[in-house]
Design a protein that fits this description.
Shape: rod-shaped
Largest sheet: 5 strands, antiparallel
Distance between the termini: 83 Å
Strand content: 15-25%
Radius of gyration: 64 Å
């Protein structure tokens, strides 16, 4: 685990302070030693000169051995020094550290460096280890006597005292260094803690930003570099918030657009796909994500995108059909290049799904064509027979009567066709106001059977009606429910054989619905026609249907009415064995039944 910045900064500051103190100690220790030596030397020299002046005022007899040694002992004891008197031949005649009786056996001092220097220059100084007193000593010697020197006076001081003093000073300094080290680190840590506090605030805010937390700001009351950094950080956070709001706004806008939008960059890669485009082309991933063009599910669309990208030209409403996640769709494609000044920066593609529009146009064309065809056939027949009558057939009673019957039959066909077209138009337009209530299906079936009784009797169709005793009332508009039952029964009558036709109407409860089945033993419907039997103007046998007076709109009307009642309709059929049309209407609620 990495140490925190405050600890590292505290260690650095403490180390700097400690090293500074240590270097100062080493430097000052050397200087202090030199100062102590210099002070001792000057003191020793001053005492030496003072005592030389005293000796030079004494009579010549004082250089006798006993007097000289006594004087050296007194002065050495008073000054706590080693005082030595040496004659010009180098013999020691007095020494404060040596008893008088041993002076005769001492070595000759004529060759001692300080003695030679004093005889030659008037002043000699030497620092060395003394074999006599077994210590490191500082020696200073000067000649005594005027005008000619009569002897040499030498003062010596042990350097041991200077060492003791120096060791004491160094020991105190070393103790101070330990405390200096301790307080240096404490001061460094405290200083680093307070210096690093704004950095910790910055780090905490940065951590929040990485976790998509844009709350909180950094105080900017400082005018130093940290204050500048805090202001820059707050400004950057504000810009991120603005960019985030802009991204959310763009995301909401692109998500709400029904058209598929795909944006490519200057390299031709996809950089934006809105949800509509993701669903159509099965492009997974985030809306704002770079991906290559090969992620498009259709190779022709990929080629089109590449061509438009290379040409840098706009594409205006180019239609293309291709397979998508929703099946085969017809898309109207437009594009616009994105230019930054003279620089090409990508292309925006908008793909509008016009499949429904094109299907509606096809349905409209088919409807107009079907209605025109259905109108033209009876009109042509009416026109032809009318012209025949006018050309003379009207004076032939046996032909005129037959022709007039045909004209009447075709007129009734036209009327039925026009009425069905009008009914279907009203139903599909949603302009019909249904009046729902509890309806007794028995009454509706009975009424429809009475309306078609002549057709049933004409073809000698055997009708069987079976209604369950506990069948509840259903929730429906009675008028449109009659249209459904009448169309299904009329359709069954048309396609059963005369004399052998059988129709069975049954009704019973099925869960929350009432199911009505109209079953016949007619010609039946092939499997390939079953899926289109409820389309407008679709007939299984067009010639026979027209001959029977069918308009091709009855079952389409049935389907729309049933769906408007939130019901279901289905058909089961086998060729030459008959068909069963089943419709389900919801059961009426108790409150609806009580209102009736």
């Amino acid at each position: 685990m990495q140490a925190k910045v405050s600890f590292r900064l505290g260690a650095v500051i403490g180390t700097i302070i400690f090293v500074t103190v240590l270097v100062s100690y080493l430097s000052l220790g050397g200087q202090l030693t030199e100062l102590l030596r210099e002070a001792s030397r000057r003191e020793l020299h001053r005492d030496l000169l003072l005592n030389r002046q005293i000796l030079e005022e004494k009579p010549a007899g004082w250089l006798e051995a006993d007097s000289a040694d006594a004087w050296a002992d007194r002065v050495g004891s008073a000054l706590e020094l080693r005082v030595t008197l040496i004659d010009l031949q180098g013999r020691v005649i007095g020494d404060s550290y040596i008893p008088a009786k041993k002076l005769a056996v001492l070595q000759n001092h004529r060759n001692r460096p300080e003695v030679e220097a004093a005889l030659q220059t008037g002043y000699g100084e030497e620092s060395r280890y003394s074999q006599t007193v077994k210590e490191q000593m500082l020696y200073i010697a000067v000649p005594v006597g005027r005008p000619k020197p009569r002897a040499l006076l030498r003062f010596a001081k042990p350097l041991y005292d200077i060492g003791i003093f120096e060791k004491g000073i160094r020991k105190s300094i070393e103790q101070g260094l330990f405390f200096a080290l301790f307080f240096s680190f404490v001061a460094g840590l405290l200083g680093a803690f307070f210096l690093a506090r704004p950095l910790r605030n910055l780090a905490e805010i940065a951590r929040k930003r990485l976790q998509d937390d844009l709350s909180g700001t950094i105080p900017v009351d400082r005018q130093d570099e940290i204050g500048m950094l805090a202001r820059a950080f707050n400004t950057m956070s504000d810009e991120i918030k603005k960019m985030r709001r802009s991204e959310e706004w763009f995301r909401a806008v692109f998500s709400g657009i029904r058209e598929a939008i795909i944006v490519t960059d200057a390299a031709g890669d996809i950089i934006l796909v809105n949800p509509a485009a993701s669903r159509i082309f099965r492009i997974e991933g985030a809306m704002f994500k770079s991906r290559p063009l090969r992620h498009l599910s259709d190779s022709r669309l990929e080629e089109l995108f590449s061509r438009v990208h290379k040409s840098h030209l706009a594409l205006i409403k180019e239609e293309m059909a291709f397979e998508t996640a929703k099946g085969r769709r017809i898309m109207q494609i437009s594009s616009m290049p994105v230019m930054q000044g003279e620089r090409f920066d990508g292309t925006v593609f908008v793909l509008n799904d016009i499949t429904k529009l094109r299907n509606l146009e096809r349905v409209r064309r088919d409807f107009v064509s079907s209605v025109s065809h259905e109108l033209r056939t009876p009109l042509t027949s009416i026109k032809g027979y009318t012209e025949t009558l006018l050309e003379g057939a009207m004076h032939e009673p046996e032909h005129a009567s037959a022709f007039l019957k045909i004209i009447l039959q075709e007129s009734e066909q036209l009327t039925a066709l026009v009425n069905d077209v009008l009914d279907l138009s009203r139903i599909e337009s949603g302009r019909i106001e249904y009046h729902f209530s509890a309806v007794d299906l028995r009454t509706v079936i009975a009424k429809s059977v009475d309306q078609l009784r002549l057709a049933l009797e004409k073809k000698a169709v055997r009708l069987d009606v079976s209604i369950a005793d506990d069948m509840p009332q259903l929730h429906a508009d009675s008028g449109y429910l009659e249209i459904v039952v009448r169309n299904l029964l009329d359709n069954a009558i048309k396609y059963v054989d005369a004399e052998h036709g059988k129709i069975r109407i049954s009704a019973f409860r099925s869960g929350d619905y009432v199911q009505l089945d109209v079953e016949d033993n007619g010609i039946g419907i092939s499997k390939q026609d079953l899926g289109r039997i409820f389309e407008r103007f679709y007939r299984v046998d067009k010639a026979r249907s027209r001959e029977l007076g069918g308009t091709g709109l009855g079952l389409a009307i049935v389907k729309h009415i049933v769906l408007a009642h939130k019901g279901h309709v289905e058909v089961r059929s086998r060729v030459s064995q008959g068909s069963v049309f089943s419709v389900l209407f919801p059961v009426a609620s108790d409150s609806s039944v009580n209102r009736n």
